[in-house]
Amino acid sequence: MSSKTHVLVTVNTAPERAKRLIGRVVSDLSPKYTIVHVANCERISDVLPVLRSLIPSPTILFTASMWTPEESKLILDTARYSVAGIQTLALPQGLQVQKGPDAVVEFIKEVLPGVLDKAEVEKQKL
To answer: Which of 19, 50, 55, 99 has its CA 20 to 30 A from that of 9?
Structure first.
């Protein structure tokens, strides 16, 4: 198990769904990672103020699949600009609608460990 606690912010227009799906991911990855989901932003305009208000700063942010690639890029760029060393993950657009919540959970579980490991390395550099 990682000794590092990862502080997660999501950007999702459906906060209850985000909480439910992240809860599944956190539970499934808990033997190796400690992840605390501290906030969800429902609008792009909320990202910067939320990230700047959190103490400790988030170590990871990801966007849900309802965002277009351009919107996801704007969100991820905002996160990288405002929080040194933050790691990011963008879910592929349409994943939830096309394949359902189980596919979202599986995608996150497959990709997130690499992102979390990178976050630990980046935080050690700071």
So the answer is: 99
The residue behind tokens 């209850």 is: 16
Alpha-helical regions (H) of 14-100: 15-29, 47-53, 69-82, 95-99
Which tokens sit at 106?
A: 């599986």
CA dist 43 and 40 (Å) reads: 9
Tens of pLDDT along 24-73? 999 999 989 999 999 999 999 999 999 999 998 999 998 988 999 999 99
SS3 state of residue 32: coil
- Does residue 100 come out as left (phi exceeding 0), alpha (psi in the -120 to 50 range) or beta? left
